[in-house]
Amino acid sequence: MVPFKLPLINIFDSLRQRHGLPLGVDEYLVVLRSLEAGIGIGSRQELEQLCCMLWAKSEEENRLIRRLFQQMWQSEPGELENKDKRSLDDDTTESSQPLSIDEAETPEELFSDEPLSELETQPSITPEPVQAVQAVRSSRRDRELRRPRYSLLTEYFPVTRRQMKQSLRYLRRPVREGVPIELDVEATVTKMSREDILLEPVLIPPRSNRTDLVLMIDQEGSMVPFHELSRQLRETAERGGRLRQTRVFYFHDYGDEYLYRHPALLDAQPITEVLTEIGERAVVMIISDGGAARGNFDQERVESTKVWIEQLQQSVRYCAWLNPMPNECWQDTTAGEIARLLPMFEMSRQGMNAAISVLRGRYRKVLLKI
Asked: pLDDT digits over 10-21, tens only?
């Protein structure tokens, strides 16, 4: 069986550029992930219904999507090979060049009557999610300079998930607790030498990490581009950090009277209550650009942040700040002044390791070059 590839990117591009539907990459990826999960692959009707449900916001848009699918199923031989010159929509004369199409396949194979589930799939050289990103960006034709091509990334280059996990696993305070199940070799040998016989070994409780980590994450404003990075750090700490407990709170610019349990700054909790609840043995990691992303200086933010940090330092043992902006961008900004109040590091592998050292109480303070 010749590999099958649905040209959904062409319909997606037509809906956005020719018909002005407010669709983005996320809407396209939802369809792909649904297909990967086995939804909408039973028949052509199921596929059309899936796209209408996820892309259409009105009955008119629903009919438009179904019409484009019908045109795709009924394409004449040779039509797919000339997509650079012809449009999927008969109502417009504007030509459009699709980003990718598997032209090695014949129309008869592309539009076979066999059910979709019986056909094999084969990724193209350029994955369709990447094509969707390119389609969204290529619609801005008024730009004089040609935009570079973009691809979807699952990692944040300065520090990957794996590196986050490796750094967080150094954040530990081992304490023996629970049922004694581990052999204490030294105590057992001492007991044998004293009693001249081994009746039973000496057992001790296993070691467990008693570290409580509190993440305080800046949201909205200039932190919007770094929301994905913050989410990766939070998920890594919760799932792979091997910590006793991880609590996450959110704020905007600085912690005022309240912190929030939801990233949309909902479910407020008084900061005094939070500090009492987490206890003095917890360590706090703050994630914020401190105003460095916009490159400005805000004295009021500095003063308010200073009050907040002093409140934290009176309640917890160790506190460190991770900044997603590189440290060369802190100079003459609010972040540069905040960095004088507590240890601040850029969000990189080296920066994370240094922040963990602070939270372990093993960091030597040095003068920051800012």
From this structure: 888 888 888 888
SS3 letters across 278-299 = HCCCCEEEEECCCCCCCCCCCH
DSSP letter string over 139-194?
T-TT-SSPPPP----SS-TTS-HHHHHHHHTT---EEE-SS--EE-HHHHHHHHHH
Q: Which residue, among 152, 138, 114, 197, has the nearest Cα to 29 in the 3D structure?
A: 152
Helices (H) and strands (E) in the chain, counts: 13, 11
Between CA 252 and CA 23 the distance in angstroms is: 29
Does residue 255 contact residue 271 with C-beta atoms inside 8 Å? yes
CA distances in angstroms from 317 to 258, 272, 361, listed in the order given: 21, 16, 9
Per-residue model confidence (pLDDT) at position 324: 92
Rounded-to-integer distance, Cα 2 and Cα 270, Å: 62
Strands 212-218 and 283-287: parallel
Q: What is the tens place of the pLDDT at every residue in 93-146?
A: 443 343 333 333 333 333 333 433 333 334 444 555 555 555 544 544 444 344
Q: Where are the domains of the chain?
A: 8-138, 179-207, 210-359
CATH class of 210-359: alpha beta
For residues 218 and 322, is the Cβ–Cβ distance under 8 A?
Answer: no
Mean of pLDDT values over 191-201: 83
- Name the token pair of 362: 């093993």
